[in-house]
């Protein structure tokens, strides 16, 4: 970036998959090499012209639980920083656990329990071995993940 600044050119991103195309085409007034960058110009280009909120990840909003969790992790004083067990009990993780437990039954609804698989009605060892043989013969190439 130093060479771009000295030469007066705009730096080029190598990985553009996370930045929208509108942000990649920088006008000369938004160039990093231009020292007279106007803050109002930079902030006005953060939103699309149609008024919708931008979709790329740099403009996402996060929950207050997440912000509090990050603030605790970024304490400068190591003695003031919480330990791992305290962080695992933080409300941010509790909210995630709660949502996962609510969503799990719906995610598992299309899954058939292995006990309902054809040929597994008997619980004797020969039935289990035949079940294993049947499962080994399954073709997963046709599945879409």
Describe this protein's structure.
- Among the domains are: 2-46 and 53-59, no CATH class; 64-108, no CATH class.
- Helices cover 42% and strands 0% of the residues.
- It contains seven helices and no strands.
- GO terms for molecular function: kinase activity; protein serine/threonine kinase activator activity.
- This is STE20-related kinase adapter protein alpha.
Task: Kindly list the characteristics that best describe this protein.
cytoplasm; mainly alpha; kinase activity; STRAD_A/B-like; STE20-related kinase adapter protein alpha; 145 residues; 42% helix
SSE arrangement:
Blueprint: H1 2-7, H2 21-24, H3 39-44, H4 64-73, H5 84-88, H6 91-108, H7 125-136
Question: How is this structure best summarized?
Answer:
This protein is an all-alpha fold and 145 residues long. The protein has helices at 2-7, 21-24, 39-44, 64-73, 84-88, 91-108, 125-136.
């Amino acid at each position: 970036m130093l060479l771009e600044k000295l030469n007066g050119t705009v730096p080029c991103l190598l990985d553009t998959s996370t930045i929208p195309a509108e942000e990649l085409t920088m006008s000369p007034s938004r160039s990093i090499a231009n020292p007279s960058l106007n803050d109002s110009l930079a902030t006005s280009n953060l939103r699309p012209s149609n008024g919708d909120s931008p979709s790329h990840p740099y403009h996402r909003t996060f929950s207050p639980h997440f912000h509090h969790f990050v603030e605790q992790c970024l304490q400068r004083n190591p003695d003031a920083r919480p330990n791992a067990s305290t962080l695992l009990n933080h409300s941010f993780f509790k909210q995630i656990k709660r949502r996962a437990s609510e969503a799990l039954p719906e995610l598992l609804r299309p899954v058939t329990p292995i006990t309902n698989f054809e040929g597994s009605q008997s619980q004797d060892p020969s039935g289990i071995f035949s079940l294993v043989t049947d499962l080994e013969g399954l073709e997963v190439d046709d599945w879409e993940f």
